[in-house]
Amino acid sequence: MRIKNIGASLFLILFGLLYGFLTTRLPERTLPNTPGPPFVPMILTVFLLVLSGAWFFKSLKLDTDEPVFSEKTEHLFYPAAGLGLFLITVILLPWLGFLVSGILFFAGLMVVSGERRPLWVIAFSIAVPVVLFYLFREGFLILLPPGSLLD
Questions:
Q1: Nearest Cα to 78, choosing from 115, 120, 28, 123?
Q2: Pair 60, 10: CB distance under 8 Å
Q3: What's the angle, vertex CA 92, arms to CA 89 and CA 94, rounded to 5?
Q4: pLDDT digits over 93-144, tens only?
Q5: Torsion of CA 35, 40, 41, 46, to 10 degrees
Q6: Terminal Cα-to-Cα distance of the chain (whole angstroms)
Q7: For 76, which DSSP code?
Q8: CA dist 114 → 10, 76, 109, 132 (Å)
Q9: Exposure of 41 by Cβ count < 10 A (0-12 exposed, 13-18 middle, 19+ buried)?
């Protein structure tokens, strides 16, 4: 299993590099405050390379006696709860806006993930959406939804 993981992760790293190279020549955006054609391929390339690299280095350290997958069904609660929180956030996004729904989403996700320190939950559930909001607004020039209830 270890050799297959190393081979697959190297294949994905090479694929990510090729994909990133092929998408570098896409034309720039023409409309203001909209992401252009190179935006999504750049994000996909970065995530693919980061995840493939993490998989490669994890495969180098993997013991042959260590089980890779857990077959316990009680572990499915956490991904299902996270997916439920995401769907609720997407439904509430037009009314609450990105900042308010993002704060609620990250707070819920941290609690579902097992974080029990209230100060950490409050601090990070406020900090992450605010940083993302300003990153998209100032860095990418993309306006996120403000929400109709707060108007």
A1: 115
A2: no
A3: 120
A4: 989 989 999 999 999 999 988 888 999 999 999 999 999 999 888 887 788 8
A5: 120
A6: 55
A7: G
A8: 33, 14, 9, 23
A9: middle
